[in-house]
Every structure is written in C-alpha cells, then in structure tokens.
Inverse folding.
C-alpha cells in the first residue's frame, strides 16, 4: 500500500461516514500533511512502524509527537478553532487505521474574530459598485441564504423557469444532492425578485446566447469554467476596501501573527450576506435552517417540519417565504420594519412641530396683549412690517375668524387701524394749527 492509498482510503472513509464535501476533503489533506511534515514521516511509514512496536511503545512515541505539534501551533498563535480542526483530523487518521494513542485533549473551539452584522445600506452600496455577475451573486446569497460553494455549482435548470419572461416570484431553487454540503440529501430554497432581476441582467450582458438549462449559472468569462468562490470572495473584499477608502463604508480590521506571518481579518466578509439572510428573515428557525441547507441541524425537528419536495409542500414553503422572509430581505425598496420606523419618525417630528407651533402661538398672544395694553410702544416697527401691510390690505370678508391665529390677525389689524387713525388725527390737528397760524399772520 502506498502513502497515497493510505490517505486516500482514510479520506474515502471520512466521506462515507461524515461529509463528502470537497472542502472537507481538502482541509483534511492539508491537516494530515501538516502533521506528517512535523514528524518527518509518511503515512505509510507510521503504519509500518506500528507493526514493529507494541501498543504501549507506539502510544508513548506518537502521543508526545502530537502534543509537540499542539505546542508548536500555540506558540505560532494558531486560532483555537484551527488547532481543534488539525488535532481532530490527526486523531481521525489514527482511529481509522487502528493506531493506538493515549488521551489527547481537544482545544475548546471559540471564535477569535467576530464579524459584525452587515446593514442593508452597505449591501446596496456593495451591489452598486459590483459588476453584473457579482451583483447577481451577492443578491442571491442575501435573499436565499445559500453558501458560496453551493451558489457556484448551481445550474440554470436548478431555478424555476429562469429563462422564461415571467419567472415565478418567489423563485424556487432546487439544491441537488451532489452540491450540498456533505451531500446529505437534495433540498430546496427560494429567492426574491431583485435576485432574479440581477441574474437575468447578468445572463443577458455577459453570457453567450442562447442559453441552455444545463449550463452553469455563474462562470468565468469563457462561459464554461465554474467561478471559484475564492474569486468572488476576493472581489468582495476588494470592493469593501475601496468603499472604505472613499469613507462610504466603515469597518474594523483585526490582525494576528500566525507562524511568523501577519494576517488581517475584516469585520465584513462575503459570508455576512448569508448571515443577513438568517438575521433578517422572520420565518421560524426550522424553515430558515432548512432553506440554508442546515439539514443536519434540524435533528428531531425534521419530524415536525415537512421537508418533502411534493408540490403541495413546496407551495406551503413558498407562501411562508413570501410572507415571513421576502418582505424583510428587500434590497432596493423599504422593508416593513423600515416603513414602521419611517412612520414613527414622522409622527415624532410632527409632534415636535405641533409643540413648537403651540409655543409660538402662546408667544404671539403675549406680544399682542402687550401691544393692546401699550399702543404707544412699538407701533412704528409694526407699521413697517410687510406681512402686516398685506394683512391690512386683505378684505374683511376674506378673513374667516375660525382659529386663535386668525383671531390674532384680526386683532392686529384693528390695532394697526387704530394706530393709523391716531396718526391721521395728529397730522390733521397739526395741519389745522398751522393753517390757523397762517391766517392770523395774514390778517
């Protein structure tokens, strides 16, 4: 048996009993190779050495080697989740090949870096800056909750009547068993109108026509090679960094040194779009888990939620998605929550304006009362006021005295009329006196 056969047989066993994910297979290969490099042996050499040692001798040799790798990873500042994954992989290899070990503790897994929630406005900005293919990819991930690895393997035929002019909304997406994580079983989910709009625009602009249902949805420029999720992730990261330079999006970046290499971790990542689906979707958790492909997490609840792909059950799920999920996953238009917030804000502003008007009205009443009691004070400025002149020129019959404000207007007009009359009388008396004096002098 060669080294390749030893590792390949083990990986096949893992795929059979656990997850047949290509990603898991790749990670297990990397992790076991890390251990083999650490001890300077091949997988076949480990098995051959077991044949020459008894169990106790083998345990006492290889358990310390694994523990030394743990110490090396801790010294190099590997994340706890990475340490846990590597050691679990090594223990899996030893267990499959019936190689004995003494007790080796697993590091407790926890997240060192937490991504912050992404907002709807940030998603809109990211999509606005993206190319047609990425616009469709981001919108689909936001409104369906699918994993990047799953989205990259979707075919046109997986969407309900996608090439038709009137694609049903919500649009049914069938996730084939071979592209699900772990290849557990086929399931289905839905997406909303905006995703379908972006997808159709992308297909029209960047894909050679006519299209066939068997073609993959997201491809490279040649229209045949599947787009790698890493390419989409790299493009997403570049976009958000450009937006941060423009002070359009603000997010923190953490850094860590692993194996003498500095690595940065952005607080916003491509996977935040999938989290947005989970956090803003108002459907029950069982439905959200099912639509997101968390089949194994349903557990006993799978007996209480119908996951069969019968026409009747699909329509039941579609209605729940339409009522509980789709309204809250809108990207370009307001969601019900945003509408309620807008109404509440307007009601608050309206109440504030009402209070201001009432305060102004009270102040006007005080001023008017003061002027009535003291007509000799401040008459000249009021007389020159343009607004007051317009009120004076307004015909009496057009003044409908229905409100306190209108009553004040009428009162001010009467006050100004009285002031005008007083001035006229003074002017007339002065003129009369002047004339009398002139007549006397003439005589």
């Amino acid at each position: 048996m060669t080294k390749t056969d030893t590792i390949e047989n083990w990986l096949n066993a893992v795929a059979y009993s656990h997850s047949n994910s290509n990603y898991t297979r790749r990670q297990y290969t990397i992790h076991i190779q890390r251990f083999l490099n650490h001890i300077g042996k091949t997988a076949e050499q480990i098995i051959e050495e077991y044949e020459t040692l008894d169990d106790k001798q083998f345990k006492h040799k290889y358990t310390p080697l694994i523990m030394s790798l743990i110490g090396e990873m801790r010294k190099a500042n590997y994340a706890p989740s990475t340490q846990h994954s590597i050691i679990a992989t090594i223990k899996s290899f030893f267990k499959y090949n019936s190689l004995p070990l003494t007790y080796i503790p697993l590091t407790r897994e926890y997240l060192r870096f937490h991504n912050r929630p992404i907002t709807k406005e940030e998603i809109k900005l990211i999509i606005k800056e993206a190319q047609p293919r990425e616009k469709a990819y981001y919108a689909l991930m936001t409104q369906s909750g699918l994993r990047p690895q799953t989205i990259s393997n979707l075919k046109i035929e997986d969407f309900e009547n996608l090439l038709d002019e009137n694609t049903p909304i919500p649009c049914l997406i069938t996730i084939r068993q071979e592209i699900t994580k772990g290849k557990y079983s086929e399931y289905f989910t839905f997406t909303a109108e905006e995703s379908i709009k972006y997808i159709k625009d992308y297909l029209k602009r960047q894909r050679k026509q006519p299209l066939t249902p068997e073609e993959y949805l997201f491809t490279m420029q040649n229209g045949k090679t599947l787009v790698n999720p890493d390419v989409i992730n790299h493009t997403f990261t570049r976009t958000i960094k450009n937006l941060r330079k423009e002070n359009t999006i603000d997010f923190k970046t953490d850094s860590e040194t692993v194996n003498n290499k500095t690595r940065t971790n952005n607080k916003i990542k491509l996977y935040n779009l999938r989290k947005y689906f989970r956090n803003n979707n108002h459907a029950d958790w069982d439905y959200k888990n099912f639509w997101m492909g968390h089949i194994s997490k349903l557990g006993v609840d799978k007996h209480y939620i119908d996951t069969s792909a019968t026409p009747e059950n699909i329509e039941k799920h579609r209605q729940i998605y339409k009522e509980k999920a789709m309204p809250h996953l809108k990207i370009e238009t307001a969601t019900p929550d945003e509408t309620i917030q807008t109404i509440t804000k307007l009601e608050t502003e309206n109440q504030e304006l009402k209070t201001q008007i009432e305060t102004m009205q009270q102040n006007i009443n005080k001023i008017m009362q003061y002027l009535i009691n003291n007509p000799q004070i401040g008459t000249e400025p009021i007389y020159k006021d343009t607004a007051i002149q317009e009120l004076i020129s307004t015909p009496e019959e057009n003044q409908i005295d229905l409100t306190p404000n209108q009553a004040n207007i009428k009162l001010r007009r009467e006050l100004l009329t009285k002031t005008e009359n007083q001035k006229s009388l003074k002017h007339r008396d002065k003129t009369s006196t002047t004339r009398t004096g002139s007549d006397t002098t003439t005589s």
